[in-house]
């Protein structure tokens, strides 16, 4: 987005406040500085020289989970996520990003992952037979989230793939961060380095099809990597296998509500595949949240680093709604959502079983024809 | 307000529900109309001293009691989606954001009512009810942001549902209102009318119980017409059928909508609407719709339904062409739409403009006149700003009324209300003798009409000079400007 386009958007904002409707941050704090219309008014004042671009305005730009719910409701089509990438880029160049974002960026550039874990440990959880990446047209891109805090998810996927004897490869310790968090923070140079390293590895192994359980990685692989690779989210990939008859499921008589994460949902338009996959499991009863698909609220997860208390409050709202629906479990297909809900559950009195979709599958999977 | 008073207030509402940060004060004290700094000065507008978010009716009451004792102005606000300045705190003091009163308190499908907090956005209630097989009797076209208290405060006289069920005030079973002295008061259907349209000058609406209706089968229609005359004739027949939704789009608006990727007919007038009923009555109503629109061409149910889905966005979706927008709202009887549109052709011949109407109660429409503008071109923008006075003149001429009063339209009150205006002031003085509730609004003229007319006239004639005057005013101390206003106007506290 050019500077001219950015300024045009600032003046296009009708200040109608429709952006407030689905904004989880605003609906917790009640402050207009956390709404798009508030930010546009502030930026207008900055452009007209009435306000300095100070910490408060910078904070207002960063106090956003970038879930894009505001864009769904905006009558003038303002895309704040696209705008904020340009804004953050500018702020990064001016050295004005908030300390919390600076810390995250430093961790990412020093460790190559957002969890401040040693890079060569990234493959530590892998069984020894995967220690050396082999050549294969199919790559399971594990993601930092599934390699460090959530290797339950990655292990589940391995077990499913082993059960159906599927030919694939993993990069283990040679897998770099996809670049997504740095892109969101406005640090484009470093993210490109990561993208280049990964692409080189994909080509070395003769990879054609890449699947991942992390929607952030999926979104980045889809939008920022070469189009020579077929990119799939794990739910799309598994649904293909179900439709090809390579996977069958045992019965699972549970009432489940599915939560749409933003990266997979609004950002990439993947709403039906996870639901279809759940419906492919016999006896699953699928129910819906009041606001679902493109209208789903954000889990709050992206704010766990910068504003943890707020993030947990946001996540707790969804927990409460899931609880009120009387479901056996809430299923998401995003590690960030899963972590946000788990963190919220720790400090909340509301108890709901939460699962990232792949975690359900190992005991249910049978090899198809 | 003194530092001590702000401290006391924070003890009333809790530290996390009060802020005096200049940025928050700025963002919670505007509305839809962009007011340049110099214009704020000319009005003598003071930023509020502090902003509070009371979390329940008891806190609203405690804040008002405190403010009344200390003689501090209080300006309540919902989503501030009008452009009349009604939500702008003019005299400083306390800005009261009702955001936290946003719960759906009770849904009773047996007795068919719903109780909601004043800060609840209408769309949340609409979605909640639609998912459970019910509909409201009325809601505004800005439902994704407009709040319950805000819309009732502004009069709630045109919107979705209104042509079928009458003015939305008739849907009110009861209200919980806090009076300026802090007294909590539960109204019945009749007394509720005192607060509907009072724009926060008589008290704070905190909770509303509304009648709801089982959601019927729905059918959507969309017609275009070869002449405005034929279209208005059809509209005159249609509103009598009491449709749930009825709106018109003129060719100027359609052309702007097409420019941003919609596919509207380019004929002089398009009518979109929806009727509901059971299978049998729907057939009858549908035939009546066809009869009323005999002179038009039917454009299909599906596109009509898409317009319905899009009903909250139409009026703003083309704004990027501006990128600013002047919007003038007047309420007139349906037959007056024809002369109005013809007159606008002449008045606005140098502008890019369009009109959307939303059906109101008793055969009136709320006509929204949109004009593309660019606020960065200050002289040209001032020129467009002067159309505000034109809108008032048109409303008056066409047996109508302004859609709201607020701050910018107070000087027309005498002309429009005559004797009734004095009666309204009597009520205001009785209920709010210390004038702490949203002062300088609605029944208190801030700027005498001759000044307004003169300045608007000059904006049209010599905008450069007005701009110079405005810039000059922004260098004068606010105290001096307010003193001058106090000599001429009546609404200086």
Number of structural domains of chain A: 3
Shape of chain A: globular
Write down how many β-strands of chain A occur, each being a DSSP E stretch of 2 or more residues: 9
How does the helix and strand content of chain B classify structurally?
alpha+beta
Question: What would you call the quaternary organization?
Answer: heterodimer
- The succession of helices and strands of chain A, N to C, reads HHHHHHHEHHHHEHEHEEHEHEHEHE
Largest sheet of chain B: 8 strands, antiparallel
- Low-confidence segments of chain A, given as residue ranges, are none
Which shape of chain B, going by the Cα principal axes? Answer: globular
Number of helices of chain A: 17
Q: DSSP strand (E) fraction of chain A? A: 5-15%
The average pLDDT score of chain A comes to: 94
N-to-C CA distance of chain B? 14 Å
How many strands appear in the DSSP assignment of chain B? 18
Rg calc of chain A: 21 Å
- Mean pLDDT reading of chain B: 93
CATH architecture group name of the largest domain in chain B = 3-Layer(aba) Sandwich
InterPro entries (chain A): 4Fe4S_Fe-S-bd (IPR017896), 4Fe4S_Fe_S_CS (IPR017900), Cys_rich_dom (IPR004017), HdrC_iron-sulfur_subunit (IPR051460), Helical_ferredxn (IPR009051)
GO molecular function (chain A): 4 iron, 4 sulfur cluster binding; metal ion binding; oxidoreductase activity
Keywords (chain A): 4Fe-4S, Iron, Iron-sulfur, Metal-binding, Oxidoreductase
GO cellular component, one term (chain A): plasma membrane
């Amino acid at each position: 987005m050019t500077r001219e386009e950015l300024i045009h958007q600032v003046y296009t904002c009708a200040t109608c406040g429709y952006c407030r409707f689905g904004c989880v941050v605003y609906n917790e704090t009640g402050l207009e500085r956390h709404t798009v219309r508030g930010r546009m008014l502030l930026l207008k004042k900055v452009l007209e020289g009435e306000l300095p671009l100070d910490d408060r305005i910078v904070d207002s730009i960063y106090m956003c989970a970038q879930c894009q719910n505001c864009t769904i409701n905006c009558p003038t089509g303002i895309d704040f996520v696209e705008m904020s990438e340009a804004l953050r880029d500018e702020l990064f160049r001016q050295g004005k990003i908030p300390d919390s974002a600076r810390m995250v960026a430093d961790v990412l550039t020093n460790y190559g992952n957002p969890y401040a874990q040693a890079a060569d440990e990234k493959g530590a959880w892998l069984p020894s037979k995967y220690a050396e990446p082999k050549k294969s047209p199919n790559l399971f891109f594990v993601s930092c989230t599934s390699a460090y805090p959530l290797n339950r998810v990655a292990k589940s996927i391995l077990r499913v793939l082993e059960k159906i004897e599927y030919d694939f490869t993993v990069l283990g310790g040679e897998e770099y961060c996809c670049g997504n968090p740095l892109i969101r923070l406005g640090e484009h140079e470093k993210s490109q380095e990561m993208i280049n390293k990964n692409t080189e590895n994909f080509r070395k192994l003769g990879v054609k099809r890449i699947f991942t359980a992390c929607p952030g990685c999926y979104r980045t692989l889809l939008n920022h990597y070469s189009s020579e690779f077929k990119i799939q989210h794990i739910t799309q990939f598994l649904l293909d296998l179900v439709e090809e008859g390579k996977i069958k499921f045992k019965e699972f008589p549970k009432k489940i509500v599915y939560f749409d994460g933003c990266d997979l949902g609004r950002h990439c338009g993947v709403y039906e595949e996870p639901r279809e996959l759940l419906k492919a499991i016999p006896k699953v009863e699928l129910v819906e949240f009041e606001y679902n698909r493109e209208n789903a609220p954000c889990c709050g997860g992206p704010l766990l680093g910068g504003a943890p208390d707020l993030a947990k409050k946001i996540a707790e709202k969804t927990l409460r709604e899931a609880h009120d629906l009387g479901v056996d479990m809430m299923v998401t297909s995003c590690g960030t959502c899963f972590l946000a809900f788990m963190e919220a559950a720790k400090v909340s009195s509301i108890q709901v079983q939460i699962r990232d979709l792949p975690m359900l599958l190992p005991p249910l999977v049978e090899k198809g024809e | 307000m003194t530092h001590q008073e702000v401290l006391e207030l924070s003890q009333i509402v809790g530290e996390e529900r009060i802020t005096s940060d200049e940025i928050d004060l700025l963002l919670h004290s505007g509305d839809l109309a962009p007011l340049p700094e110099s214009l704020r000065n000319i009005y003598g507008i003071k930023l509020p001293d502090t902003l509070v978010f009371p979390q329940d009716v008891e806190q609203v009451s405690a804040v008002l009691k405190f403010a009344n004792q200390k003689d501090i102005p209080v300006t309540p606000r919902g989503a501030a989606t009008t452009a009349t300045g009604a939500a702008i705190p003019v005299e400083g003091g306390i800005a009261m954001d009702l955001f936290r009163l946003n719960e759906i308190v009770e849904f009773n499908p047996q007795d068919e009512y719903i109780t909601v907090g004043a800060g609840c956005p209408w769309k949340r209630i609409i979605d909640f009810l639609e998912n459970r097989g019910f509909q409201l009797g009325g809601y505004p076209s800005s439902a994704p942001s407009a709040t319950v208290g805000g819309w009732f405060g502004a009069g709630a006289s045109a919107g979705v549902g209104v042509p079928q069920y009458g003015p939305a005030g008739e849907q009110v079973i009861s209200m919980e209102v806090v009076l300026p002295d802090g007294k909590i008061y539960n109204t019945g259907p009749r007394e509720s009318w005192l607060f509907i349209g009072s724009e926060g000058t008589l008290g704070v609406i905190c909770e509303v119980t509304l009648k709801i209706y089982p959601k019927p089968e729905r059918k959507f229609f969309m017609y275009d017409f070869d002449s405005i005359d034929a279209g208005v004739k059809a509209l005159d027949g249609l509103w009598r059928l009491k449709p749930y939704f009825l709106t018109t789009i003129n060719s100027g608006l359609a052309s702007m909508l097409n420019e941003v990727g919609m596919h509207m007919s380019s004929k002089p007038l398009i009518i979109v609407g929806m009727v509901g009923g059971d299978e049998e009555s729907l057939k009858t109503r549908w035939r009546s719709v066809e009869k009323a629109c005999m002179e038009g061409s039917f454009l299909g149910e599906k596109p009509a339904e898409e317009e319905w889905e899009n009903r909250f966005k139409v009026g703003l979706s083309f704004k990027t062409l501006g990128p600013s927008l002047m919007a003038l709202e007047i309420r007139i009887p349906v037959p007056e739409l024809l002369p109005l549109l013809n007159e606008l052709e002449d008045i606005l011949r140098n502008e890019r403009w369009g009109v959307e109407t939303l059906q109101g109660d008793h055969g009136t429409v709320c006509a929204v006149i949109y004009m593309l503008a660019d606020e960065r071109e200050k002289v040209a923008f001032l020129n467009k700003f002067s159309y505000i006075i034109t809108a008032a003149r048109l409303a008056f001429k066409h047996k109508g009324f302004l859609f709201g009063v607020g701050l910018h339209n107070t000087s027309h009150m005498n002309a429009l209300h005559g004797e009734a205006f004095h009666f309204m002031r009597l009520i205001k003085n009785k209920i709010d003798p210390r004038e702490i509730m949203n002062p300088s609004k609605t029944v208190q003229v801030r700027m005498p009409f001759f000044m307004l007319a003169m300045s608007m006239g000059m904006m049209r004639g010599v905008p450069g000079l007005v701009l110079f005057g405005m810039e000059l005013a922004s260098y004068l101390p606010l105290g001096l400007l307010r003193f001058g206003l106090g000599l001429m106007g009546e609404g200086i506290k």
